[in-house]
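Supplementary material to the annual report.
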Amino acid sequence: MQEILKRLESDALSALEKADSLERTKEIEVQYLGKTGHLTIILKGLKDLSDEEKRLVGPLCNATRTTLEEHFAKKIKEFEDKQLAKELSKEFFDTTIPGSMRPLGHIHPLSQLQEEVERIFSQMGFAVADGPEIESEHYNFESLNIPKDHPARDMQDTFFIQEKDDADHGRMVLRTQTSPVQIRAMEKYGAPLRLIVPGRVFRFEATDASHDSMFYQVEGLLIDKNISLAHLKGVLAEFLTRLFKKPVKVRFRPGYFPFVEPGLEVDFSCLLCEGRGCRVCKHSGWMEFMGAGMVHENVLKAGGINSKEYQGWAFGFGLTRLVMMRYGIDDIRLLTNGDLRFNKQF
Amino acid sequence: MLVSLNWLKDFVQLPKDVNGKDLGTLLTLKTAEVDHVIDESADYENIVVGQIVEITAHPNADKLKITKTSIGKETLQIVCGGQNIKEGMYVAVACLGAKIKWHGEGEPVVMEKAVIRGVESYGMICASVEIGLNNPNEGPREILDLSALKPEIGTPIKDVLHKDDIILQFDNKSLTHRPDLWGHIGIAREIAAITNSKFKPLKVDIKIPETGESVDVKVKDKELCPRYCGLIINNIKIGKSPDWLIRRLKAIGHGIHNNIVDVTNYVMMELGQPMHAFDKALIKGGIIVRTAKKNEKIRTLDGKDQNLDTNMLVIADLEKPVAVAGIMGGEHSGINENTTSIILESANFNPSSVRKTSVKLSIRTDSVQRFEKALDPLLAEEAVKRAAELILQICPEAIIAGPITDIQKFNKKPLKITLDTEKAKSKIGIEISTQEMKRILENLEFKVTEKGKKTKTFVVEVPTFRATKDVLAEDDLTEEIARIYGYDNIAPTLPQLPTKLPLENNERTKKHRTRELFSYGLGFDEVYNYSFYGLNEIKKSLLVESHHLKLQNYLSEEQTHMVTSLTPNILKNLQENVKNFSEVKIYEIGHTYLEIGEYFPLEEKKICGAILVKGKSDKIFYEAKGCVESFIQKFNLSHVAEAKGAKNTPYAHPVKSLTFIDHRGKSLATCFMLHPTVQKNYDLEKYSIALFEINFTETLKLEETKNSYKRIPKFPSISLDVSVAVDKNVEIGTLQSTIKNAEKDLISDVKLFDIYEGDKVEQGKKAVAFSITIQSPDKTLTDSDMANTQSKIHSSLEALGGKIR
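Predicted assembly:
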């Protein structure tokens, strides 16, 4: 009996193996497991056996039945899956139709870059400070060691407000730099001080593709004990490297600004040629970036900080210029004329 | 400023291995920015002196000749069309590889072997224009004849033409603070210090007679003229300057006049001290240095008539001004071809006075450029002697008439500064020995005395040519040490992070979040506008001019007033953008400046947004309102109430406007449809425009509502709809509160979902539909609860005159 069952099982499995369609598989299933199937007949015959034989053969028969049922079910599932896959693949569905989304608006590129700059400096422990855009001569010039007859105070550089003159404040101006916030911050918080001031500044100068009467600057200030130019180099290199996401080197040159001493011009290694020299950097390998230096003792004094105890540096760079560089914008006026064909690109 | 390397070599022993480009870089890194380094000889490579040894006719061309031309080591066959060529003639030969501009025009081309009408040619015999010369005696089809010079055959042409200089072009801006660098000698001194080479000071070898005729000088204002040196030289013969002098002045881009004027310019370019020469015969009496009288006039050397004012310093004779001090001489008393006797002026003028006068008269000269930097008064005497020396050299028959008149009033006490070397090191951020610091300062001609071994302090005496403005305090010395030591040698270091966290800037953070809300949440585009607008804009927006700050100086009529509202510029944006877009949603975050009768104006930060669609639509009002509501919700602003209308907003529609106020009654925001008049003024009648303005500064003052967790309701809610017909002018707000009040405890939400006016309702009525949510915290609501609530709602609405539909 055992042998009969074994043969039956292997016959059934090899027949199943050869089955090449769902129909054929079902036919074979009926042949073996149907009402008059081979195995069913054997199972039906069990009742005629003695109890002892039943005990012996019964489990064998059941095992065979389970095995066959499992194999048939598996084979049938395979065919059904194949069938479904075939049917699904026949359906037409167009995935190239554009996604339906609510159109996003656009944040101005200056705002975007400004936030990036603020984030990087914040991570280096700098606070972000603000100040008024309309300033007094006192804050914009005098306290920054720019005395009355300095060329920077000529009419050609500064916007003045009519009928605003005061013994303490002097005339009223549109701030020509973010530097007055240095003094305001020193007065308010004292030393130590570590902050940046991104903001709008004004220059009374004719507008063309690369000059505008209004643009954005970022001022930086670090005052503490033993702060040096080495720290300035370190902070700027780190900032630029993070901003441009590649190693950037910083170069100092002598420069003159009344509110710093020593005064510096700061260049960074050309992003395109990495210092080898190319058209963009006029073959120098360097891009002019900003003015900086150690805060002049007269400025510290004006801000009420003891220059014997504290020292530090300040820098100021053009955020507008950085935006133009980053996106290859060739006309500064695009940033302020509100033409959405421009603004929607960012 | 242009500087000649050949000229510099008079004063500094340059290291052999330094080339022009390296020197330029070195100066840029340590002294001042060199924009360009121009090698004069670069254009003359492979061009040499040749001699025509043989001329034969060209077989195929009448106008061409075949020459055999010797260039020393070899003889070349060159085809030439020059009409003036003859055997034995010395010529300039462009050999193969030379770069030549054909007939002096266009881009240079490289000379190659050519076959000209069937005859091989190995180079070119050049015309003057082809090697950058201008020879008026040369005909149109002639070549340059060098026979008169008899140069050695094969000599590079650059040597014959003395085109062997290297010119450094400095960025003038980077020399602003360095009066000592406005002459070759100053740059040479600097180069000596930065290259560790020997500086060769100028030695003037001239005998000034102790007696004789000298200039009568009266200085009326010694503040404005701390020093005036005058010298008379007689027996002058005006003529052309010698070639070497012309070459030097031309090399640095200076104009050429006559021997006397050229000498004064030469001395200025050499020492940095501007000078002037008067024709003595045209000066009546002596020299008087004074401020101009009222209504005085002068015609300056450029032929322009200038009106002087009483703050302007002039050089005058007994009758009239003869020069504007330190700026420009007068035409009348200038050197001319008949001049035989001159007065040389070498003076020191107050820098700010010179600058102010120059700005007022709109005259910028080399002289102004130098005086405004604050020159060393000691230079004046050196310069007059140097000029006299040169004049005698060029014009040997000239005679110095007598002693130098020298009127002076300036501080001769040397400036001494104490330098704490430790402090200097800590500021630069380097380790450097005191000996090295001392050496650096001494190379720059500072005198250093060390004070006390332990304290490491220097007492530094500043050379006079640095002490007028540039080096006045300790930090100025730190700069000298830092730049010569080399900024490149400073290693970048990150400062330690502070122990205290930086102050939070809540405003900045909120600004960025606001942009995200409006741009990415509500689909608006951000714009930036100027902080000013013009009177036209003020009028078009119905604003009041007197509330504005007005600019004293402005660039255009559209930029005369500081903005008190962002709206006018936003409207301008709309006007421009409707040309390209049929719908516009924009906003700006910016400052407004309101005159409030105090010194500083009220400067506030505002957010202004606009929605524009084609045709008539009041719906966008609610979109604008929704923007303000989103803002309030986003920042959890508490206790905000609504009030009809918008005060101080003349460009708002009087009825279609709404103000959001806080608990103090302060206006936080408004939203409104644009006033029809303003809409017309901006040519936007075909569109509907809704705006919102948020006073960002005010909203920052408000407390944020604390957001705390509320338990999610245990029992299910039921929703029911109610539709009611009411009079048209019953407000939705009234209906909503009526519904809510019908069963306060159970009704958790009342949402408007439809307003209908039309055929299906009676005239003068509208049908309004609400979706109402009822919910109990304690139990699952039953059908009878719902029926109960519904009937309460119905009767409340009916009490208002509504008909349930």
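The domain at 506-701 of chain B is CATH 3.30.930.10 (BirA Bifunctional Protein; domain 2).
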